[in-house]
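Our consortium's second objective concerns turning raw sequence data into structural hypotheses that experimental partners can test. To show how far this objective has progressed, the report includes one record in full. It was chosen at random from the queue rather than selected for favorable results. The single chain below, 295 residues long, was entered without modification.
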Amino acid sequence: NAIVKLKNDITLHMQPLFIAGPCVIESQELLNTVAEEIVRINAKLGTDIIFKASFDKANRTSIHSFRGPGLDKGLQMLADVKERYGLRVLTDIHESYQAEPAGEVCDVLQIPAFLCRQTDLLVAAAKTGKTVNIKKAQFLSGMDMRYPVEKAMEAGAKEVWLTERGNMYGYNNLVVDFRNIADMLDITPRVVMDCTHSVQRPGAGGGKTSGLSIASASSFMQWAAYSFTCFSRSEAISFMLIILLFVVLFESGLESDLVSFYSRSFSTSPSSLSRKSMLGPSLSAWSGSGCTSKK
């Protein structure tokens, strides 16, 4: 369990959670592939991984970018995942009218960073009775997130999480100030670290968002997990393979399992795989920064 100490001397022992899944719903096959692996890992490790996918990426850079299947079809696909695999499900909403139908399917409703101060959206999400995960805007400090949380709580939200996803420093640049996590823990005991969107360069890819592919370790993480990253239709640049979700657990006897999943997903011979080839430049950059994996 993660130990969270608040300023009022209250210490919480919380089970770390992970949020993983395709950034946008591309196909039922992809949803099933990722869900099956999440179920297997949850069972093996006793982890709590919430399945995440968006039915509509309404804030893409270009009007030509793939957005997803839409509200009705997308929620049905998520409902199928929830019923078939027994996973908790998270999706994001962009307009108030989406809250009620999304709340009938999903366990967690996520508020996009750009919309985190939209009162009607926060109130609608809160009234569903589901957990509300509010992503911190790129233009706000951690302390500023007290007010979106107040809006949701006063509208009846039972539980509110906050998510760190970086701040804008100049054009197209996101930088994570980790002091924001401590500041937000003074507001709510559950803070998520969005490791993929935080490495974006919004709008810097010539009509699309560019970024870096890195690995990060934290007690609370949000990961966009892709089984077929080369062909991903959303966040393809700042991807993280689902196996990278467990880079911090790599030393815990999981290597054979990860090689097995990698080979199934990419039709690669297990004998040709090594730790370096599996994790590639992402782990190399991570290790080279002075951070090393330890048992």
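The partners drew two points from this record. The chain has a mean pLDDT of 74. The two ends are 16 Å apart (CA to CA). Both points have been shared with the crystallography group to help prioritize constructs.
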